[in-house]
Amino acid sequence: MKNILIINGHPNPDSFNFAIAESYKKGADASGAQVETITIADLNFNPNLKFGYQKRTELEPDLLESWEKIKRADHLVWIHPVWWGGLPAVAKGFIDRLFLPGMAFQYRENSVWWDKLLKGKTAHIITTLDQPGWFYRLSFGRPSVNQLKKSTLGFCGVKPVKVSYIGIIKNSDENQRKKWLEKVYNFGVRNK
Amino acid sequence: MKNILIINGHPNPDSFNFAIAESYKKGADASGAQVETITIADLNFNPNLKFGYQKRTELEPDLLESWEKIKRADHLVWIHPVWWGGLPAVAKGFIDRLFLPGMAFQYRENSVWWDKLLKGKTAHIITTLDQPGWFYRLSFGRPSVNQLKKSTLGFCGVKPVKVSYIGIIKNSDENQRKKWLEKVYNFGVRNK
């Protein structure tokens, strides 16, 4: 049985991203998978890695618990909006604070290479957009996807990483949103 | 005379990014340019745009002052490290909180297009890396650059945006760092 972890990176509980996370969870629950969730907006932590990588910052209990969930998971489902070509700052801070050397990866001594410490896991990025997915790819080089899929998850050994774009959100009506939620529910059912 | 604004996005005052910002400033001062600075680590603000775009969050005085500096500037020099293919969370939060509809851009009614409200400005991104610049481009698709150059500054009408990579930082010696600082000093002198 798959252990699925849903990581919701939207700061606002009234956002459509929360409906997406809920719909995925319903589908995954219906499939009989083990499902855990991290709602970044609910965590108590400082998103600022204030000493950078020069000095360690103590991890808050909510981050420690989140890391246990990540370690337990076979499949990570990241749900977030694209803001300025990236994740919302608080979701980026979740990564900055938690994906640390010795935890998510480890540089090898006197080498440009590194060990990938999250090998064996897979992921799915479900991202909401206020522009068409193809436009985001062609005009902007889909930076949030390259950031999360390649520079973060891939860097730590998570693969394959599936990507789904949902949008355009700002012009969407109820009917369209219902269809998107059904699509996401089916991702959950199939543990995609 | 050019009005140059240096925006330093590294959270840690002991980081090499601070030496870079200082060196650029010295060069720009020597050229006789007007130079202002924003050191994001020194600002008092919440990087989390907690209601997203559904409800406005009051801007803190430090953000209001930062926006005045941005408006006054002809040339924006962004200095930041690449963390997980993006800007540090606090620097991303500076953008999330400040680059708001009606300030940095404005969607047109019933249209996918928008007005770019920062037209007429130019920029230079000076970014530190722990990998070679070419590797960052080819393997990861240089997401932080696409994020800041295209999806943020370009989206708001800032162009052209020059990009300089400085690195590999983690293996660099004093001599190499001195050379980088001289290079950045010369960018300052030439108002690049």
Notes on the structure:
The structure is a homodimer. By secondary structure, chain A is an alpha/beta fold. Chain A has one domain: Rossmann fold, CATH 3.40.50.360. Helices cover about 40% and strands about 20% of the residues of chain A. Chain A is built from 6 helices and 7 strands, in the order E-H-E-H-E-H-E-E-E-H-H-E-H. In chain A, the strands form 2 sheets. A 5-stranded parallel sheet of chain A has the order 2-1-3-6-7, sandwiched between helices. Chain A has a two-stranded antiparallel ribbon with strand order 4-5. Chain A starts with a strand and ends with a helix. The mean pLDDT of chain A is about 95.
Summarize the structure.
Chain A is built from 6 helices and 7 strands. Chain A has helices at residues 16-30, 61-72, 89-98, 133-140, 143-154, 174-189; strands spanning 3-8, 34-39, 75-81, 105-107, 114-116, 122-128, 161-166. In chain A, strands 2-1-3-6-7 form a 5-stranded parallel sheet, with helices on both faces. In chain A, strands 4-5 form a two-stranded antiparallel sheet.
List the helices and strands and how they pair.
The structure is a homodimer of 192-residue chains.
Chain A: E1 3-8, H1 16-30, E2 34-39, H2 61-72, E3 75-81, H3 89-98, E4 105-107, E5 114-116, E6 122-128, H4 133-140, H5 143-154, E7 161-166, H6 174-189
Parallel strand pairs in A: 1-2, 1-3, 3-6, 6-7
Antiparallel strand pairs in A: 4-5
